[in-house]
Amino acid sequence: MKKIQCIFILLLTSYAAIAQVEKWQKGIVSQEFLYEKAPFPSCHSATLAETQSGLVAAYFGGTKERDPDVEIYVSRMVDGKWLPPVSVADGVQANAKRLPTWNPVLYQVPNGELLLFYKIGPKPSEWWGMMKTSKDGGKTWSPAIKLPEGYIGPVKNKPILLSNGNLLAPSSKEGNGWKLHFEISNDFGKTWRMIGPLDGNGINAIQPSILQHGNGKLQLLARTQNRAIAQAWSIDNGETWTPLTKTTLPNNNSGTDALTMKDGRHLLIYNHVLPPGDLAKGPRTPLNVAISKDGEHWSAALILEDSPISQYSYPAVIQTSDGLLHFIYTWRREKIKHVVVDPAKLKLKKIKKGVWPALKGYAAPEIKETKNEEG
């Protein structure tokens, strides 16, 4: 009898949590997993692009992060449905030694090829950059090309095409401390030059994303070990940058992504979590979306996930040609989730002093860690 009562209480608690988080989900058009079954038990670090033939997603999958069997997989949406995952890159070396692959990033060249950037190496401090291209929307891929020595391509988040024709790839390195830099190509990946490392100003940051404010003004937002999302500014299309500073938004030492929408507003997807005590790392739940007109003052827009079971992490976001927002992220390291949002239907509430605003009838649940909160 007690067991039945416990199950009943658990079901009621779960139902209440779902009902509460729905109050923060105005504007969601659809949500789905990219797959139900896959040839790997664990996945992470998804990326998304819109091609002429439809949406294409990439992510890494294998036994678990850092294992040599981790490969880059691609899922394509055809006729409104995601096709099964297909392996498109692995870390097998010429000497038959196998290394894990990491952090794919997709970029669709306007009226051109689909680019796939990824990394190979035993760990982030020792990985190197690779690139493949596709002429048919991700169905088939070219042989892998190793990027020039010292270059890794966009480390997690998508590059942006600047008004001057440069492709600006946000990047970072983790070897001798965490440092941000940018890699620039004026021929879509054939040749490269580097800007940075940036002045960290005492902040340990990686995995930047880029917002565009017009007339060459750019803003980066980045993951840190300093309990807050960091930012820096450029007024010359990314050639020079201000030193990093902390924003008022918390960071749990987990990946974020951002974009400037077609209406000029800026969007950030991240875990709005302040780690406990003075810790640098915290739970990767909930998963939040905030919007800003100026990149400095933010309003709460969405909570995509909020569960006592972590993690919901490493998000990516794009806005497709029809104006809809597409979010993709790691769901408990088990699956990749895709959520479509109509930005015109979002209801905003100001974030004051870094605190996610209260909503009548909503209370964040107690958080339980998952076993794998690594990269």
* Uncertain runs: 6-16
Gross geometry: globular
Going by CATH, the architecture of the domain at 34-146 would be 5 Propeller
As a percent range, the share of strand residues is 35-45%
Describe the structure.
This protein is mainly beta and 375 residues long. It has a domain at 34-146: Glycosyl hydrolase domain, family 43 (Tachylectin-2, Chain A). It contains 1 helix and 26 strands. It has one helix at residues 2-21; strands at residues 28-33, 42-51, 54-62, 71-78, 81-82, 86-89, 101-108, 114-120, 128-134, 145-146, 160-161, 167-173, 179-185, 193-195, 205-214, 217-224, 230-234, 245-246, 257-260, 266-270, 287-292, 298-305, 312-319, 325-331, 335-341, 349-350. Strands 2, 3, 4, 5 and 6 form a 5-stranded antiparallel β-sheet that branches. Strands 19-20-21-22-26 form a 5-stranded antiparallel β-sheet, with no helix packed on it. The protein has a 4-stranded antiparallel β-sheet with strand order 1-25-24-23, with no helix packed on it. The radius of gyration is 20 Å and the shape is globular. The termini are far apart. The model is unreliable at 6-16 (pLDDT under 50).
